[in-house]
Structures
1.
Amino acid sequence: MTRLWPAGEAIEMRIDGQGRPLYFSWKGQVHQVEQIQQRWQVDSDWWSEQGRVWRDYLTVTTANGLLCVLYFDMLEQSWYLAKLYD
Amino acid sequence: MTEPLSSQLDSTSPQQNRLSGVRRRDRYRPDLPYAELHCHSYFSLLDGASSPETLVARAAELGLTGIALTDHDSLAGAIRFWTAAQEADVHPIIGAEVTLADGAHLTLLAETQTGYANLSRLITEARVEQRSFPEKFDADMAWPGKVEPALMWEALAKHQAGLIALSGCRRGPVAQALLAGEQKVARHALVNLRDIFGPANLYVELQHHFRPDDERLLRTSLALAHELNVDAVITNNVHYATPKGSRLRDALIAIQRNESLTAARRGGRLPTNSTYQLIHGPEMARRLQSLPTTLVERLLINSVNIAQRCQISLDFSNHRLPKWHENSDTPDIPISPSEFATLYALCHSNLPHRYPELRPQVLKQLAHELEVIEEAGLAGYFLMVWDIVRFARAQGIRCQGRGSAANSIVAYLLGITSIDPLHHDLLFERFLSSDKFTMPDIDIDFAADRREEVIQYVYQRYGREHAAMVCNVVTYRARSALRDLGKALDFPPNVIDTLIQRLDTNSPQQASVALKLENRDRGLENDIGAPDPNELLVDLLAQIDGCPRHLSIHSGGMIITRAPLAEIVPLEPATMPGRIVCQWDKDSVEDAGLIKIDLLGLRMLGLLTAAVDHVRAMGDPPPALDALPLDDPEIYAMLQKGDTVGTFQVESRAQQQMLPRLKPTSFEDIAVQVAIVRPGPIQGGAVHPYLRRRAGLEPTSYLHPLLEPVLKETLGVLLFQEQVIRVAVAAAGFNPGEADLLRRAMSRSRDKEAMAAMQARFLAGAQAEGMDAETATAIFGQLAGFAGYGFCKSHAASFALIAYQSLYLKRYHAPAFYCALFNQQPMGFYAPEVIAGDARRHGVELLPPHINRSDWMYTLERTSARRWALRTGLCTVQGLGDAAWQQLEMARRQSPFHDLADLQRRAGIDKDVLGNLIRAGTLDAFGMRRELLWRLGELDARPDEFELTLPAIAADLPHLEALEATAWEYELLGLSAAGQVMRHYRERLRRARVLSTWEVKQARAGRRVRVAGMMVVRQRPATAKGILFISLEDESGLLDLVVKPQVYARLRPVLRGQPLILASGLVQRSGRAVSVLVGDAVGL
């Protein structure tokens, strides 16, 4: 079942020297990033009451076979898990 | 191609993707060169967010190898871009993103001069030619007006020479098909482009903006490029200089669709992110890190190579004017061996007429000017202007040169101007100097109602291929910016209205500063939390300053060129039927080295013509306006009293305040009077010293003795632009041409560096003349403060002449003058009701509109053997259109109307308009207005049938109060012919000891008075520190009220909401000028 968190689930991310994501931990489990499938950036809603959305999105596959959408929040400088495909 | 693109592509895989927002080590050389070949300025209207200058400056900062300007179907910003690039030493490329007929975009860059001409031609075709815009426009034709540009592929094929094509953005014919997964269509489009441009001049355009499908598009594009053996290049489709501009661009896109930002985003019309800024090579390489390094380097190097291939110039000064004789198919144009010989002969043949007593000085000045004109190759230009003026005169269209051209004896001899430059000691170098940097500018005023004939003559004489109107770039003002941005940010309409009402500036930048001060206490937004919409508005207002809203037609500027105009600057249809405009404004035209002629419409000239015609029709000998002696004491008496309502240039409230203090006694004084009520002298602090010195209250002094010969005539103060030039010559040893460059730099003042260099040159020169640095700096400061806003003396003198002529008519032919004045409305400073009061005070009786006696316009009607009165025209009746008037007039010609029923039956006018005719008093001859209105309700409208006699129903109708009648007249006619509205209040006011305006003018200074009247003008000049001036009118005249800001704050509801007020305050006197300093006011 596909799970979607519009606001995102906070995750901890480890990156390499070139900024490439290596591992992230979610709910106590560590996932190794195997491949980045797609990436895109969103900068929008700077005028809206909900506030500006400025994020770098990634679709990645992990070593244990998960396909997920992560994003790096440019304003907060932190990582989130946005979507998980089973 | 040296190496196939796809062989490099094969070695990549998605794993090499990197994030953009996270710090990482740079794999590329920091000096990786890159040129931006796809860049929109704010001349991509409501899409680009940065000025050409800002883009160039940013390109210089980033160290780009070159930057192209590629606005949507436009070269409107090209000259500004070009000039800025020259100054910043950045390599400019001129191009455009053209819109094809199917809506697809294509990037075109001009490689050669031919390519530039083709680009301009293509944009013109996209905007004008294939839309069946008629060559010769006829008023009956439907005019398509502004249309969406659309370029046919056939046109592209015809005009491809000298152009380099890039396949375009995501909306390009290739990318669009690839994104839709239509490989075949994409291939077909690229093959088409390759066939048109050839493989050497076509590149597949790649872009990367971190959109979800960008990587896929990159790969499919590269594969197709390889397959068809076409090279590729990367661009960033720039829409703003820095990421900050992305917000304004989002807002502009919303404005374009007249919707809010939220709606625009929901509709998918906003870009997904803010990455469309200028970036340098290394940053671009980072975006492309999924591609192999060698391929990325090649895409970047291609941008540099293309940039370097594009070498064109936008200096058109070499081929600017049509050859005079080439176009001379008019039989009476003199033919001499050369244009110069023709000019020489014309000038000399007119000498006896202009200078019956020939002095050596005249010949010397003429020889000097002719030499300069010959050297500059401008003889043809003078002949062209002479020809236009000659045409106008032959048609009886009154005209006169204004501006700096009146400094020239050649222009005077050719009849272009009416002021003798020698008699008035004018300076030729203000108009034209022997250095080659300045272009002369001849502006001619024509009677406004007939200017169109002159413009049509120019089209006909030179052909539509060679002549067009200059455009006017309409930029955002504070008001329009607030309205549009407020709507984009979803402000409620009433909030926007309130913000607009509070505005006291035209500049969006200043409005932003003011709004920011208001917001200061609210606390600033942070980037994460909800933004304060007011803060967003502050930011966007500041950014939108200078941004064009649309292009319109310049008031009268025309360019005429030898080469087909469409190959120099794109042409586009204006909204106005029959008008084609070029995409450059007057500054761009001048900076391109082209010459424009301003053919302006001046209603006053139409007034003079009409007034003389009226005098003739009245059976009096018409005055010879062009040969008036300029020393009539009666005229100067009028001026000294400020009796100038309706006359030219000296009628405004500020002028009327100044006149009794300046007390003009000579024609030169009128020129001073015209020039002194201007921001230049006011801001330069020249006005009060001049007046005090003139009145003998203080001695004339000069900042330095060297200035005495220059400033003596204006008592030591700067009043005329020519004096800026003469001061620079006298004080700092400039030559006159150089000094005019200084003046121009000062008046444009966009470039601070150029000003600093000028200042250094001025100070060094002054020092060499033996002046100390402090004095020199002070003089330079005065010049700089003045130059932008002053009149040139030649202009002031030309206008003074028209002013004198209008005063003369008002003094000696008042009925004819007022009649012409009413018929030229709207013009001048005052509303018709004020003119009506003035006419009455000058003994001209104003008759109400009359259904049988009035013409459409105002006419003169003989009331006794020697008296003429002014009959109000029916055109003043609200709701009575031209068509209804035609019917009415035709019926009336058979026989006059004898009552209301007769009028309705024969004229076939609808009841609402009949009601207006009754209420306006035009049917007073048929009965009381209320009664007529009652009867109107009973009438059955069956035109051209038998008149039915219905039994009259007797109704006891109340008599119309005189005040109500007047109110109806004001509502429907804008004035009451019977008299000023205040007469109805006079008796009661007198009992309450409220004075009339005339009585106030007799009161001593400092006396506290109460006065009542109608506010006819409200003005808050930028130079008056927030003070509001009101012209209050009653039946005895006009009086100035002065309201200080703190008083205004208190009285605002009264002063903005009520036309009739009762004000109290202190009488102020300054010479013979009287005003009241308001302390309190109430509505009547």
2.
Amino acid sequence: MQALPGEEKITLRVNGVERTGRAEPRMTLADFLRDRLDLTGTHLGCEHGVCGACTVLLDGRSVRSCLMLAVQARGHDIATVEGLAAADGTLHPVQEAFSEEHGLQCGFCTPGFLMSVVELLEEDPDPSDDDIRIWLSGNLCRCTGYHNIVAAVRNAASRMRTQCPDAGRGDLG
Amino acid sequence: MKPPPFDYRAPETLAEAVALVAEFGEDGKLLAGGQSLIPVLALRLASPRVLIDLNGVAELEYERLEGDRLVIGAMSRQRSVRKLPGLARRCAAIAEGIDLIGHVAIRNRGTVGGSVAHADPAAEWPALLLVLDGEIDVAGPRGTRTVAAPAFFESFFTTVLAPDEIVTEVRVTIPGGRSGSTFLELARRHGDFAIAGAVAAVTLSERDGTIADARVGLIGVAPTAVRATSTEEALRGARPTGAAIADAAALVGGHIDPASDIHGSADYRRQAARVLTRRALTRATERAAGSLEGSAGLAG
């Protein structure tokens, strides 16, 4: 593909698939995912790193994609919300849990929460409510008041401990 | 909310990075973790002509505990330092300080060198460097130098770094013997910038249980992190009683110059500094006392 002046070709792995797009160095990873790769599940809330709506996983670790440049993600593995469900549409346990516990209303913050929760449960499969609230302090929600989000994380933790007691990082690359 | 245009360079070695800062001087801006710089760019508070991205300079990313020294490469992520085995046990103040840095995602990308170079008056690392005999290694076209922490931080977001200098490593000394420490902050929400914060490290005499050494640092109450040396001096040699700690904590006012803003008045910050210092010293002392089996807690 041709790049416009100032733009460069950027290749990275997103949800296990190699993807290529073009961007100026100043384009954030968030904008690159949304505008160049049509992965609009990652949301832009504040665009300066406070709200967590843009959270994705970079090599398994949560990052604010609005605080990374797309060029910095070259050669790395990115996991976005679009990669959580299985190819056949089966929801990820965290998604099931959020649905069951009404852990979302408008859904704008939800992708960021889901990615953060995936990392949390990988790090700590049995977090206390305090652990959950501290871990998710970087994700803001205007709708729910967080109560059902915490319940959803407890629910997800329980599901995942039951389903895959010895699970590692799984299919998020 | 998009960054302005800039040229972008991604060196892979420190030597390349030094050559780039030499080439671009004040036109260049170093990019470390980006957790402070990229918001600045997004808010259009700065428009550097060239961004020099240090994230590919692998030789700057390391962290290790060597005896009583914590040695940290400038590009080491906050999370990586936090995950050093035994860190919390060896020096709770460092572990607790890192846990107070923003949120998980910020600690996954944010770097120690970046925090030090950015010199936010409410940042944790400058205070840790001040109270733990911190040293900062710097590299540039004119060579390398080591700066002791008290000489490094000048004012709000201002250090002695020249535009063509790069922080390469920071080191702190972990108190030994019968020591305890803690880092406390006052903030409205977990992860917010501190309205005020205090870090304290106390070492008790093995011989008679008096305070052999006390270190107190404060954040968010002056243009830089500060050491409350009057408080420290009042405690040296003293029996570790609640009264002694309270009296010493009251002396922090002479070292601070808090601002008034939407998060708190100067008087509120002054009060917060006193209270946090007292609490931090109390907890540090209790931990020091508890660091030997069978030791009593705080007397008086």
